[in-house]
Amino acid sequence: MNDPSAASNGIASLPESGLTAPGADARGGAASPSQPTAAPLPPAIDDFDALINGDVKTFVNMSEEIGGLVAEQSAAVLRAFAAERKFLIVTTKAKKPDIQSPVYMEVLKDLQATMGVVNDIREANRASPLFKHLSTVSEGINVLIWVANESKPADTVTEMLSSAQFWGNRVIQDYKEK
């Protein structure tokens, strides 16, 4: 992406292969020709990594045991968390661009695409006996879009979690009777 307005919008020329800030390595730290050691990540990224390596990995591993559509959807969830991580790293390294700018939309593109895959799996499998499971995850993945809500991101998260909880309660109810 060689958008001349990118520098003025706060994010200069992000590489196509990932959303790391210019001069940054894969961990988000500054790359140095003389010393390839990555700079420490901001605490928020370390916390997000702990979430991914803890609860998200546990979810993915359990989903892989179930297999099929559940495993497929969980793989998309993991990719969505990875896309959000990239977005968060960029936000720690760059000035905030105008949210209507093409640069901002480009930075969010991977996150939106992976969230769309999670939802597409549900929508393509409405007849599946696991539809309620797929719906729980599909509704819950939307919490990741809090990063695009300028005014009250906590309200967005609460609303999305309520929707996921609705479907999760239906799953619990179905399995109580079995």
What's this, in brief?
This protein has 6 helices and no strands. With 178 residues, the chain is mostly helical. The chain is globular and about 50 Å long.
How would you describe what is shown here?
The chain is mostly helical and 178 residues long. It has helices at residues 6-9, 43-66, 68-93, 102-123, 131-140, 153-176. It is globular. The termini are far apart.
Describe how the helices and strands are arranged.
Layout: H1 6-9, H2 43-66, H3 68-93, H4 102-123, H5 131-140, H6 153-176
Helix pairs in contact: 2-3, 3-4, 4-5, 5-6
H/E series: HHHHHH
Q: What is the chains' assembly state?
A: single chain
Distance between the termini: 53 Å
What percent of residues adopt helix (DSSP H or I)?
Answer: 55-70%
Describe the sheet with the most strands: none
* Structural class determined from secondary elements: mainly alpha
Q: How many β-strand stretches?
A: 0
Compute the number of helices.
6
Instruction: Please tell me what the overall shape is.
Output: globular
Q: Rg from C-alpha positions?
A: 18 Å
Mean pLDDT reading: 80
Unreliable runs, pLDDT <50, ≥5 residues? 1-32
Q: What percent of residues are in strands?
A: under 5%
Give structural attributes.
62% helix; 178 residues; mainly alpha; 0% strand; single chain
